[in-house]
User: What shape does this take?
Amino acid sequence: MRLISTALLALGFALPALADDITPRLEAALAAQSAGDLKTLTAELAAATAAVNAERGKRLEALLPAAPDGMTQTLQADYMANLAIMGRRHRGRSGLYQ
Assistant: This one.
């Protein structure tokens, strides 16, 4: 249990700018851990992890180049979003992915 508390605190200090979604989840996880409520602890950790991955995806998106001229782009954030991996697809005027 001490390891969980240490990991939560480290994550909390590493992400001060993300306090809006992440910090309350981490605090709820710590409270659940202190109360011995493993079900809530697990759910709150999963929610905090999802919020961190969403933020990482947004930051990664900002680094990706724009679509080439004459093409549109759609972000691909499917099941791999949990890994914070994001890509883009480019569609030409013919509708085919290129």
In short: Residues 1 and 33 are 7 Å apart (CA to CA). Strands lie at 72-76, 87-91.
